[in-house]
Structure formats: C-alpha cells, structure tokens
Design brief:
Largest sheet of chain A: 2 strands, antiparallel
Number of strands of chain A: 2
Structural class of chain A: mainly alpha
Number of domains of chain A: 2
CATH architecture of the largest domain in chain A: Orthogonal Bundle
CATH superfamily of the largest domain in chain A: Winged helix-like DNA-binding domain superfamily/Winged helix DNA-binding domain
Order of helices and strands of chain A: HHHHHEEHHH
Radius of gyration of chain A: 19 Å
CATH topology of the largest domain in chain A: Arc Repressor Mutant, subunit A
Oligomer: homodimer
Chain lengths: 151, 151
DNA sequence: GCGATTTATATCGCGCACGATATAATCGTT
DNA sequence: AACGATTATATCGTGCGCGATATAAATCGC
C-alpha cells in the first residue's frame, strides 16, 4: 500500500481527468449518429433536454444548469432559433433577460429523442443500477471540483 | 425497483453522459490556473504527458493514445513546436510519418508539471484508492462506448 | 431623481474537436 | 515496372467553450 511515486501520477492511463475527457468524447461520438437525424449537436441536445424539462428558462438559468457561459450559449441558442426549435424573447419586466421558449417543433422533437437514452444505455452494457451509481459518483466529483475552483 | 419511465431518462441530472461532460469541463477549468504558468492548454498538457512517457512517437501513435484525430493534433502540435517544446520531423524510412520529439525545453517542463496531479488530487478530496477505482470504472465505460461505436 | 455599481446578455479572439477531403508516400498485384 | 489501393498527415469548414470585454438595463446610495 505504498504511495505511488510522483512520476507515476504523470501517466495518461492513471489520470482521472483523462478518463473523463476521453469518455466524454466517446459519448459525443456515440450520440452523433442518433442526433444527426434530429439536426442537433450534442451540446444543443443538452440544451433541448433542459428546456423540455422546464420551458421558458433564461439564458443564465440554462447556463447554471449546464455549467456553460453566455459566450457559449448565445451563439448556440441563435442556431437553435434559426433551426426553428426555440424562440428568444426579451423579458418584459427586465429587458436584460432573454427568455428561451420551445416552438411547437422544438417541443415535438422530444418524442423523437425519447428513445435515445435507452439506445445509448444499451451500448454501455451496464445495468441501470451501475449507471446511476457511476453517474452519482461523477456528479459528486464534479461538485468537489467546482468547490475547489471557487476556493 | 420498477424501471424508470422513459421520460425520466431525459432529465439532465440523470444522464451519465452529462455527468462526464460537465465533470470533464470542471477538470479543465481547475487545471487552467496550474497550466497557464507552463504556457500549456489542457489538451496540450495531455500531449506532453504522452511524450514524457514515450518520446519520439508518431502523430498517429499520439492520436491512438489520446483518441484524437490528425485534424486536431496537427495544429496543436504546430503550436507546441512554435512554443519550442517539441520538434516535428519526417521519418527517414517512411516520409509519410511525422515523428514528434521533445526539445530540451519540452523535457525540462516535466519537472514543473510533476506537482500538478497531486495538487489536483488534493482538490478532489478523494483518497488515492477512490481515484483509482473511479478512473478504472470510467475507463471501462469508455472502452464499452468505443466498442459500441465500432459495431 | 441621479450618478455609480451591479447584472444579463452579447461580441470577439483563440484553441480545440471532428468529418470530409486533399496530398503525397508506400505497398500489393500483376 | 506500373498502377490501383492503402496509409499518414494536412487542410478546411463548422460548432463548441471560455476569458476578456462591451453594451444596455436595472438597482443602489445618497
């Protein structure tokens, strides 16, 4: 149970951050053929999920949920608007705020997307329990990283 | 123990892919202040680690290790060359191949980087054992995703 | 009620990340 | 030897993702 020497920590295969980095990309690649027919990229898909969950959110609220900056979201949301999936409207009470609402098409897309998580789930060949456990562990890790960053 | 209804699978907080996506970004943000003094971005750092582990690799070998395409690596490697950390030389025996070797500066940077994983490790407030276990689970997941993609 | 500060979104520049394609070198078959 | 197929890297266009900055609206202090 000796401590690993510092040198060993600088190996790609030992780095937790690289495991996350590469698994994240692998997920994106796996989603692509499923999202292409919907005309969505993977980050756009995440934004749509956030809106299907709760329509009419502001840009910041979406950013808080997905941990993205306005510099990322504003162009992405404009592309979704151009695609006819959402509408961007300035809040009447506070003109600084932009509220994002689903169009009929945007809402309808939810049905087509409904089967995607299950398809992906099968590809992982993990049980629902395993997926939940792993997701929760990674979420906890992310929260710790966020806390560390804020400190 | 009933199966979760399909609707629940389309919630951001339940998605394993989003956990990975956001934790990956959180890691990158945490690394940034540590890598800035070295003049490296996070993906560049990964490439340097791969080279410190094994100098003189070809572009494809690095791509295989990090799961990146030449369209990503070529510009990145050119930036590392401009920064004076690596040298790109065509292989004498096979002129198609570009071999990447560390310069003296590139090699020297390893010492400055040596303490980074430990600093990050502290930020996660996980034991070495937990980190290893989680990294290995995520790596297994990534392998399953890759397998699914190839199929 | 007016200037200073804060807040919400937008813009810009840079660096990934990838698919599609291009180019050039090597290999295999004949 | 020649030619078609394969391989390694490079190039291009699109879309993130972020830090720094800009802009405009709301709020605070007085």
């Amino acid at each position: 149970m000796a401590r690993a020497p510092a040198a060993d920590l600088l190996k790609i295969d030992h780095l937790l951050c690289f495991a996350l980095y590469s698994a994240g990309h692998a997920f994106t690649r796996l989603y692509k053929p499923l999202l292409d027919p919907l005309g969505l990229t993977y980050p756009q898909f995440l934004v749509m999920i956030a809106l299907w969950e709760n329509d009419g959110q502001t840009v910041s609220e979406i950013g808080d949920k997905l941990l993205l900056e306005s510099s990322t979201l504003t162009p992405l949301l404009k592309r979704l608007e151009t695609a006819g999936l959402i509408k961007r409207t300035r809040d009447k009470d506070d003109e600084r705020v932009v509220r994002i609402t689903l169009t009929r098409q945007g809402l309808a897309l939810k049905d087509k997307a409904a089967s995607i998580p299950e398809t992906i789930g099968c590809a992982t060949s993990l049980t629902i329990g395993d997926v939940k456990k792993l997701a929760s562990e990674i979420k906890t890790l992310r929260q710790k990283l966020q806390t560390a960053l804020a400190a």
